[in-house]
Design a protein that fits this description.
The chain has 19 helices and 14 strands. It has 506 residues and is an alpha/beta fold. Strand 3, helix 5 (115-123) and strand 4 form a beta-alpha-beta unit. Helix 3 (52-66) packs across helix 4, helix 6 packs across helix 8 (166-175) and helix 15 crosses helix 16. The structure holds adenosine monophosphate. Adenosine monophosphate is lined by residues 22, 25-26, 29, 48-54, 309, 311, 337-338.
C-alpha cells in the first residue's frame, strides 16, 4: 500500500490529508485502515507517534460521513482514552481530518467545568472523545446517550488499566450496543489487555507495530551513570551544552517535576511542569507555551505526558529511569516524531541499575554510556549478571557531600550565582571528576558564554560541538536550528522559537 488513495477513503478526507502534507500511510495505518474499512474489529499494538490516531480516525470518519443516522445526530462513534491530553489531541486530529465533512465531534474530560461539554452534547455530536470518569458522570446525569454507538475505540488500553479505569471501561461497555465495530490500541500487551480484548473484540484483525523498531531507530540513546544528587547539574549542563530548546524531562514524581521545572527556570532555562495534579487549564497552558516555544523544557510525569504530541521535540531526558522497560520506549518515542531524529539521555543512579538492565533487555542491546561527563559515577553501572528490576537494599541516593569526591566539581559553576559574574572562581582548579579535558573550569565557562564556544561541554566529545559523541544533530528542526550560532544566554533572553503551528490549529 503506497498512497492514501489506495485505501478507498472518502475524497474529502483525502483532501484534508493532502493539506496536512501526509503522503504515505504509516505502517499502522496501512494495516489498520483496510481492516476497519471492511468492517472488521482491530486489536492494534502501537504507541503514540506511529500515526495510530489517523489509523482509527480516518475509516471511522469515512463510515460516518457515508452512512446516514436514522434521525437527529446521535453519538455514533465513541473514542475512549485514559488522559485528557490524549483526548484533546484526538479531538483536534478529528477536526483536521474531518474538516470537509458534515460531522460534529466533541471531547469531554474531567478537571474542567462540565457545562460547555454538556452544551456541546446537547447540540448533537457524531463522534465523542472522552475520558472514562467524566463520560460516566455525564451519562449518569442523563447528558450522554450511548445507545447509538456503532464504532467504539479504546485507545492506550494498557494505560487505561494501569490508571485503574478497568471497572469504568466495563461499565461503559455495558452502555454501548452489542452490535458495533471495535478497535483497541495498546502500546503493550499484558495479560489483562488480552483478557479485555477477548471480551470486547469480535474476531479482530491483529496489527502489531513492534514498539521499539519504528521509534528507536532514529533516536540516539545515551545512559549516564550519575549520583542522584548530581542529576540536576548534569541535566543543566546537557541542556545548555546541547542548546536544547524543545526537550522533555521525565521524573518519577509530580513533586520532582514541579521542583525541577522551577530550578531550571531559575538558571535561565524556560521550563514548566505537566503532571496529573495540575489543573487542566494549567496543563493546557504549559503545553501551549511549550508548543509555541516560550517554554524550552517540559518536565513531565509519565501519565501526564501521554499524548503529548509535539513534532519537534529534539531531546528526551530520563531524569529518573522508569521501572517498566516499555515506559522507556514510550518516553524516548516523544522525540524523533514524524521522520525526525532525536536524542535520548537517561540518568541512572545506584538505585536504578536494575531498571536499566530491564530496559536493555527489551532493547536487545546496551545503551551507549556517556562517560565523558564530569559526574560519571561508576558504581551506578549494573553489575555483570545483574537481574532486571528493583535494586534491593540500595542506598536510596542521598545527597552527596558538596565539595568532595568525584562529580562535586559541578558546584564550582554555581549556576544560580552566574548573575553575580563569579562564574566559578571558587573552583580550586582541576578535579578528578573533570573528564572534559579541563573545560569545567568556571572561568572557561564564562568564556564559553561570551564566545559561544559550545564545544567541550559536559556530555560532549571535545571534537564535536553540539553533540555528545559524534553523529549529526537532529535535522529538520527549526527550533533547534534557531538556537545554533547563538550563546545560551542570548537564546534565552532574546530568541523565541519559531512556532511550528499547523495553520489549522487554533
Ligand atoms: P499519532 O501516533 O497518531 O500520535 O501520530 C503521530 C504524528 O504523526 C502526528 O503528529 C500526526 O499528525 C503525524 N502523522 C500521522 N500519520 C501521518 C502520515 N501518514 N504522514 C505524516 N505524518 C503523519
Amino acid at each position: 500500500m503506497s498512497t492514501f488513495s489506495d485505501l478507498e477513503l472518502d475524497e474529502r478526507i483525502l483532501e484534508a490529508l493532502t493539506s496536512e502534507g501526509y503522503q504515505t500511510p504509516t505502517p499502522v495505518q496501512s494495516e489498520t485502515i483496510p481492516a476497519l474499512m471492511s468492517g472488521r474489529d482491530v486489536m492494534g499494538i502501537a504507541q503514540t507517534g506511529t500515526g495510530k490516531t489517523a489509523a482509527f480516525a480516518l475509516p471511522i470518519l469515512h463510515h460516518l460521513a457515508n452512512e446516514q443516522p436514522g434521525s437527529g445526530r446521535p453519538i455514533r462513534a465513541l473514542m475512549l482514552t485514559p488522559t485528557r491530553e490524549l483526548a484533546a489531541q484526538i479531538a483536534e486530529r478529528l477536526r483536521v481530518y474531518g474538516r470537509h465533512l458534515p460531522l460534529y465531534s466533541t471531547v469531554i474530560f474531567g478537571g474542567v467545568g462540565q457545562s460547555p461539554q454538556v452544551k456541546a452534547l446537547r447540540r448533537g455530536v457524531d463522534i465523542l472523545v472522552a475520558t472514562p470518569g467524566r463520560l460516566l458522570d455525564l451519562h449518569n446525569q442523563g447528558h450522554v446517550d450511548l445507545s447509538y454507538v456503532e464504532h467504539f475505540v479504546l485507545d492506550e488500553a494498557d494505560r487505561m488499566l494501569d490508571m485503574g479505569f478497568s471497572k469504568d471501561v466495563e461499565r461503559i461497555l455495558a452502555l454501548v450496543p452489542n452490535k458495533r465495530q471495535n478497535l483497541m490500541f495498546s502500546a503493550t500487551m499484558p495479560k489483562a489487555i488480552g483478557t479485555l480484548a477477548g471480551r470486547m473484540l469480535h474476531r479482530p484483525v491483529e496489527v502489531d507495530i513492534s514498539p521499539e523498531a519504528p521509534t528507536t531507530d532514529r533516536i540516539e540513546q545515551y545512559i549516564a551513570f550519575v549520583q542522584k544528587s548530581d542529576k540536576r547539574e548534569l541535566l543543566i549542563d546537557l541542556i545548555e551544552g546541547q542548546m536544547v530548546s524543545c526537550g522533555i524531562v521525565f521524573t518519577r514524581t509530580k513533586h520532582a517535576a514541579n521542583r525541577l521545572a522551577k530550578q531550571l527556570s531559575k538558571v535561565g532555562i524556560p521550563s514548566d511542569s505537566i503532571h496529573g495534579d495540575k489543573s487542566q487549564t494549567a496543563r493546557t497552558k504549559a503545553l501551549a507555551s511549550f508548543k509555541k516555544g516560550d517554554v524550552f523544557v517540559l518536565v513531565a510525569t509519565d501519565i501526564a505526558s501521554r499524548g503529548i504530541d509535539v513534532e519537534d521535540i529534539t531531546h528526551v531526558f530520563n531524569f529518573d529511569l522508569p521501572n517498566e522497560p516499555e515506559v522507556y520506549i514510550h518516553r524516548i518515542g516523544r522525540t524523533a516524531r514524524a521522520g525526525r531524529e532525536g536524542l535520548a539521555y537517561s540518568f541512572c543512579d545506584e538505585t536504578e541499575s536494575g531498571y536499566l538492565v530491564g530496559i536493555q533487555q527489551l532493547l536487545g542491546e546496551e545503551i551507549e554510556v556517556l562517560e565523558d561527563q564530569p559526574y560519571h559515577f561508576e558504581k551506578a553501572r549494573p553489575k555483570p549478571g545483574q537481574k532486571p528490576g528493583r535494586v534491593k537494599g540500595s542506598p536510596g541516593g542521598g545527597r552527596s557531600r558538596r565539595g568532595t569526591g568525584r562529580g562535586s566539581g559541578m558546584r564550582r559553576y554555581n549556576r544560580g550565582g552566574q548573575k553575580r559574574g563569579d562564574g566559578g572562581n571558587r573552583s580550586g582548579g582541576q578535579r578528578g571528576g573533570n573528564r572534559s579535558g579541563g573545560q569545567r573550569d568556571g572561568n572557561r565557562r564564562n568564556d564559553d558564554r561570551k564566545s559561544n564556544n559550545r564545544s567541550n561541554r559536559p556530555g560532549q566529545k571535545s571534537d564535536r560541538p553540539n553533540r555528545p559523541s559524534g553523529g549529526r544533530p537532529p535535522q529538520n528542526n527549526d527550533r533547534r536550528g534557531k538556537q545554533q550560532g547563538r550563546s545560551n544566554a542570548s537564546n534565552r533572553q532574546g530568541s523565541r522559537r519559531r512556532t511550528q503551528r499547523r495553520d489549522d490549529r487554533s
